[in-house]
Amino acid sequence: MRAVVQRVARAQVNVDGRTVGRCGPGLLVLVAAHRWDEPDQARKMADRLWGLRIFNDAEGRINVALKDLPDTGAPKVLAVSNFTVYGDTAKNRRPSFTESAPFDRGRELFDQMVEELRRLGCPVETGEFGAHMEVEAVCDGPVTVIVDVPPLARTPEGDGVETATGERRQTDG
């Protein structure tokens, strides 16, 4: 999974003129699933976001995690599904989206990431998966980072996967 993460004072997402999600001070997360992602990547992404030290400490250094912010009861994360985050422009001017997960798989992994964030204790609101959305954000800083949780690499034989460390695992299919 890959996410473009912005520290925001506030953000909201609208669909057909109605607000479907918002957050106060926290993170706007534009996230996409890779075509080879598994539920483990969704769990890891949620954990990385929850522990990402992207907020200022008392001395003004970027050193405080989302999980360490005071609980105000307001959503801390606005998560917006965005398959274009995997857009590849290395060879052309028109992005290729072949690395993005198919629609149903992308929805499943996005939902798993959101549920894992909630399980960790993070108040989250979302956009509407697959809809045309208007996202509004008041960036704080600005601070923007890309968070990558790489997919397992498929082996050429197609009978297993190779992890980022080169370890080979068999798969069921």
Question: What does this molecule look like?
Answer:
Helices cover 18% and strands 38% of the residues. It is an alpha+beta fold and 173 residues long. It has one domain: D-tyrosyl-tRNA(Tyr) deacylase (D-tyrosyl-trna(Tyr) Deacylase, Chain: A, 3-Layer(bba) Sandwich). Strands 1, 2, 3, 6, 7 and 8 form a six-stranded mixed β-sheet that branches. A three-stranded antiparallel β-sheet has the order 9-10-11, with no helix packed on it. Helix 1 crosses helix 2. The protein is globular.
Q: Report the oligomer.
A: single chain
Number of domains: 1
Query: What average pLDDT do the residues reach?
Result: 91
> Ends: how far apart?
21 Å
Q: Can you name the CATH architecture?
A: 3-Layer(bba) Sandwich
Percentage of residues in strands: 35-45%
| Structure annotation, total helices | 2
The residue ranges in which pLDDT falls below 50 over 5 or more consecutive positions are 162-166
The CATH C-level class name: Alpha Beta
**What sort of overall outline do the alpha carbons produce when their principal axes are compared?**
globular
The biggest sheet amounts to: 6 strands, mixed
| C-alpha Rg (nearest Å) | 17 Å
Order of helices and strands: EEEHEEEHEEEEE
Helical/strand content category = alpha+beta
Helical proportion?
Answer: 10-25%
The CATH superfamily bears the name: D-tyrosyl-tRNA(Tyr) deacylase
Q: Could you tell me the CATH topology label.
A: D-tyrosyl-trna(Tyr) Deacylase, Chain: A
- Give a count of the beta strands, DSSP E runs of length 2 or more: 11
